[in-house]
Write a structure and sequence with these properties.
The chain has 243 residues and is of the alpha+beta class. The chain has helices at 19-69, 74-92, 102-120, 144-156, 194-207; strands at 8-9, 15-16, 99-101, 124-130, 138-140, 163-172, 175-182, 212-217, 223-230. The radius of gyration is 25 Å and the shape is globular.
Length: 243
């Protein structure tokens, strides 16, 4: 045994670990901590990519609608541009933030719906049944916009008479449930687009098995997209350890 690895013993015969063993353990813990930090950084980076994919998708659809409006209703197109600017300004305030309160998320959603209201007018009816007990709970940033956009695109836009979208929330036994429903033709052959598949991937990254997105026909007709999340007011770290 080398001098550096000789245990240090007291007169009573109690020996402390060797200097080499202590240093080895310290280096091991440092490597373990660094690996954990790198995993967390990777998870955050993946979440940012997923979130950023939503914005060009949304912008493309909105700009396409503005372009179409400009040929028949310049005033409405101008109002839509103004509301789009307001929406983007609001979302930029939360750049880099993965979770916001449901109250804040509803503010984003209202800005988005103002844009769609210009586009559809009386053809779009929106109802909300938001439990006040859920307003301070955390949800993924901009998680509702793609769900509502999906409802508008498939449940409202194809119908000359338009339709209705409902957004509800409730909390029960530590679980937050948010549902977006429309009274359109229903799921039919369900095919997930960018918005729904992206939302599902974000939930997996943030919460693992503790959250889910369920889509399908609503019991009373139409289409339903239901989010189930852990009811929390404290933000979690984007780390694989949560799984």
């Amino acid at each position: 045994m080398s001098a550096n690895s000789t245990p240090i013993c007291s007169p009573a015969g109690r020996c402390s670990p060797s200097v080499t063993a202590i240093e080895y353990y310290r280096q091991f813990r440092l490597r373990e901590l660094k690996a954990s930090q790198l995993e967390a950084q990777l998870a955050v980076a993946q979440l940012e990519v997923l979130k950023m994919q939503l914005q060009p998708h949304f912008l493309f659809n909105t700009l396409h609608a503005i372009s179409a409006l400009m040929y028949r209703d310049v005033g409405s197109a101008d109002r839509m541009v103004t509301r789009l600017s307001d929406f983007l300004r609001l979302t930029l305030d939360s750049a880099g933030v993965q979770e916001v309160t449901l109250k804040r998320e509803m503010e984003y959603l209202d800005k988005y719906l103002e844009i769609e209201q210009v586009r559809f007018g009386d053809r779009l009816e929106v109802r909300r049944a938001i439990d006040p007990a859920t307003l301070d709970l955390l949800v993924p940033n901009l998680v509702l916009q793609p769900l509502v956009e999906n409802a508008v695109r498939h449940g409202i836009a194809p119908r000359a008479s338009g339709g209705r979208i409902e957004v509800t929330s409730r909390v029960h036994e530590g679980t937050l449930t948010i549902e977006v429903l429309d009274d359109g033709p229903g799921a039919g052959a369900i095919r997930e687009g960018v918005g729904l598949s992206n939302t599902r991937a974000r939930l997996e990254q943030l919460y693992g098995a503790d959250a889910r997105l369920e889509i399908g026909n609503a019991p009373a007709g139409g289409f339903s997209a239901r989010l189930t999340l852990p009811a929390r007011t404290e933000p979690l770290n984007a780390s694989p350890d949560r799984r």
